[in-house]
Please model this.
Amino acid sequence: MRRRIFAANWKMHHDPLAAASFALRFEELSSPVEGRHLWFFPPAVSLATAAEAFGRRPDISVGAQNVYWEAKGAFTGETSPLMVAGCGGRGALVGHSERRHVFGETDAETVKKVKALIAQRLIPMLCVGEKLPEREAGHTADVVRRQLRAVLTEITVTEAAELLVAYEPVWAIGTGRVAQPQDAAEVHRVIRTVLHEHRVPGRVPVLYGGSVSLANVAGLLAEDEIDGVLVGGASLDPAGWASIVAAGT
Ligand code: PEP
Model:
């Protein structure tokens, strides 16, 4: 059976109170479905609340939006994988385009974050994707290959088999400009080829992210290459998110 993943990136929205009321409402609207897994990535301050609120649902995991690679120490403002695990988190986004392009995160830093998560037995959801000038210059595949290879050369194939990958073209994030399903699927095939070249066993789930909405989710998920979606803006409202999840299932 084909497995589907629906991941909600709340970005800097939903404090603990809002996260708890979201969870209550969402659970009224959406029940577990075989083969479908949901992820929520709340802000760090809401992680423990969300993990507890969704705790009765084996089909739901909660993760952090970012981590630092050290376990503890004088790193003001940072959150370690150890702390994420302590809050009930099961993974984290790594290399989200806002981390890369707003906060200047490098490929080398994403590698350290992925390794630190794996060491803590947490699941990294590695985000890769090109900026608009890179797409226009025909460099999409090169950018995605570079971002993915940076990580795959530093971890074992067994560790790589546990990754989740999200292809998120930067020009599509938060812009309302979604990639055409066939164009996204083409980049997903590049990602699968790189995984294959690195001899990663099994089928690593590859999600698409960037302006996913109720209007386009079914079309995207109709592509065999697209195993799920990572959604920002359209995941913030429980009823809206439940409809998107239902429409894509
Ligand atoms: C994201 O933040 O990962 C994202 C895809 O955002 P949006 O759905 O708002 O484009």
